[in-house]
Design brief:
It is built from 15 helices and 39 strands. By secondary structure, it is α/β, with parallel strands linked by helices. About 6% of the residues have low confidence.
């Protein structure tokens, strides 16, 4: 004690100076730690590493237990109501997730999954797809579907079925209401007025109108064309009040059997026995509205939506970074560096923070342990670029496709995605949380244990992208059908859909 007192009295160290010495010691420790081997800190202080691992394992276990609790509760309810629970673990569960204005039947949207079995053929074990398993829907009906297919409630509550239950007059009134609310009638009237304003009625040299009349048709083309005009005049005179009202409201009307015989019969210049037989059968049955809807559907399927590619024009071109690996080199406020093409340059333990990128593709440059924080990316695709343990936080992505870039443990948090499809880029343990998606399809892109949580998405179909052991929670979706996509052990909870 005497020695310490003499030292304190000799050097006279007060509290402020002791704090300065402590801060200097911490700085020296951090500098020395960077100079030591990478795993020295983890070996010296293993408790820090264990604590991080325990937090991750506990979070993963909590999510798994919650999903298992939901699935077990549904299974118990089905047992109590004497329902079939065979292959229940492979079924998709939908809870409180209604489908509105769906485009395809529920069976074609992924509710049917395949059970794979194996057979021996020519001394080889080959997989075979043998059994269809239907999912479980709990308060998740398909309402106001835009098709008349499906089973039970879906077909009963489809728009076409509901429209057929209305009387013709009520149906026309409903269509008038829809056109008035949507503003179609005003737009049509405005277009018609603009055409009429620019229309000038031209006349010939002698003042005669430059359009056909019954008299000049007879003079030019003879009696055959005169008979056609007479036939059409008689047809117009035979129209009923209801037909005229339907023409005025919708632009067309269905003809009666007598009117069809007058138009296509043996005494008509428009004689066509095949057309008469075909149209008479349609008129006798439900009318041609059903066939008109089918033809419109066929026309819609014949068209395809494609995005035209745009070329970037400029007098200067950016130099690419080729064959230059990055390790323990954080990119902080270095948007210019990230905005250059990077090829054959793996990146490891190099976080990207506050570094927005524009046209900075990564090609054949694997990522590992590179969090992206507050770094938006535009036109910066990942091509042949695997990603491992790369969380993307508060970093919106636009026009950034993931092509042939598989990933594992790459969560998206508060990072909206627009026109950033995943193509042939399987993902495992890649949750999407609070990250809306628009025009973000999944194409040939299976995913496992990658839930969507509070992440609504629109115009983002799943095409040949099977989903395993995942969940869609509080994530409504619009115009995002499942096309040739199977769901296995998937929960859909409080996630209504429309036009899907």
């Amino acid at each position: 004690m005497a020695t310490n007192d003499r030292l304190n009295e000799q050097f006279k160290i007060n509290d402020g100076e002791s704090r300065k010495i402590a801060s200097i010691g911490q700085r020296l420790f951090s500098i020395e730690k960077d100079r030591l081997p990478n795993d020295w800190y983890l070996k010296k202080f293993p408790s820090q590493n264990l604590r991080k691992r325990n937090v991750y394992k506990n979070g993963k276990k909590t999510i798994r237990n919650a999903l298992k609790l939901i699935r077990d509760g549904v299974k118990l309810g089905m047992l109590m109501t004497n329902q079939n629970i065979s292959d229940f673990d492979n079924k998709t569960i939908k809870m409180f997730s209604p489908r509105l204005f769906s485009l395809v039947p529920e069976g074609n949207s992924g509710n049917l999954v395949y059970k794979f079995e194996y057979i021996f053929s020519k001394n080889r074990l080959l997989p075979t797809r043998s059994l269809l398993i239907r999912g479980v829907n709990i308060l998740s009906p398909s309402i106001l579907s835009l098709h008349d297919e499906g089973r039970e409630t879906e077909k009963l509550l489809s728009i076409s079925n509901l429209m057929q239950s209305f009387l013709p007059g009520d149906r026309s009134d409903l269509m008038d209401l829809i056109t008035d609310i949507s503003g179609i009638s005003d737009a049509v009237e405005k277009a018609r007025n603009s055409i009429n304003e620019n229309f000038v009625e031209e006349k010939g040299i002698d003042g005669q109108p430059l359009y056909f009349t019954k008299e000049n048709i007879t003079e030019i083309y003879g009696d055959i064309e005169k008979q056609k005009v007479d036939t059409m005049e008689d047809l117009y005179k035979s129209l009923t009040i209801d037909q005229l009202a339907e023409i005025n409201s919708t632009g067309f009307a269905s003809l009666t059997s007598e009117q069809l015989r007058h138009l296509y019969g043996s005494l008509s210049p428009y004689h066509d026995s095949n057309a008469l037989e075909r149209l008479t059968k349609i008129a006798k049955r439900e009318g041609f509205m059903k066939y008109l809807d089918e033809d419109i559907l066929k026309l819609s399927k014949a068209s395809a939506f494609t995005l035209g590619s745009q070329k970037l024009n400029g007098s200067r071109s950016k130099r690419a970074v080729v064959n230059s690996p990055f390790a323990f080199s954080p990119f902080i406020s270095k948007g210019g560096t990230i905005s250059t093409p990077i090829v054959l340059s793996p990146i490891i333990f190099s976080p990207i923070i506050l570094s927005p990128a524009i046209f900075g593709p990564f090609i054949l440059s694997p990522w590992a342990f590179n969090p992206v924080i507050l770094s938006p990316r535009v036109m910066a695709p990942f091509i042949l670029n695997p990603l491992i343990f790369t969380p993307i936080v508060l970093s919106p992505l636009a026009l950034q496709p993931f092509i042939l870039s598989p990933g594992i443990f790459n969560p998206f948090v508060l990072s909206p995605l627009t026109l950033s499809p995943f193509i042939l880029s399987p993902q495992v343990f890649t949750p999407i949380i609070l990250s809306p998606m628009v025009l973000n399809p999944l194409i040939l892109n299976p995913m496992a244990a990658s839930p969507l949580i509070l992440s609504p998405f629109a115009v983002s179909p799943f095409i040949l992208s099977h989903q395993f052991l995942t969940a869609i929670v509080l994530s409504p979706y619009f115009l995002s059908p499942l096309i040739l996509t199977n769901l296995t052990a998937v929960e859909v909870i409080l996630s209504p859909s429309a036009l899907s």
